Amino acid sequence: MSIDEFAKYLRLSKSTIYKLKSTREIPCFKTGKILIFKRKDVDEWLKRCRSKSKYEIEMEELEISKKCVLKINELVLRKLCKTFNSFNRYSETFRLSIIIFTLSM
Asked: pTM for the complete prediction?
């Protein structure tokens, strides 16, 4: 698409587009003095530049938090298992109850 079509598509002024082009923020081709924009490249660029909604950010943070908690639980369990495996004289039920009690704190 031409710069006029691009400006109309994004509802931007030509000067803004030239500014974005000069800072290499938008994907385009230049043939001589003519700028050409591929719709597919422009749509991908728009998706990359899109701001995330508050909900999307919160969901990402929640996923990261879940992963951290799972990792911490895994590390704690490994440590506890190493510790309690050295105490073979205790029954397995007793060792598991101690692990569960420790995790619940």
From this structure: 0.46
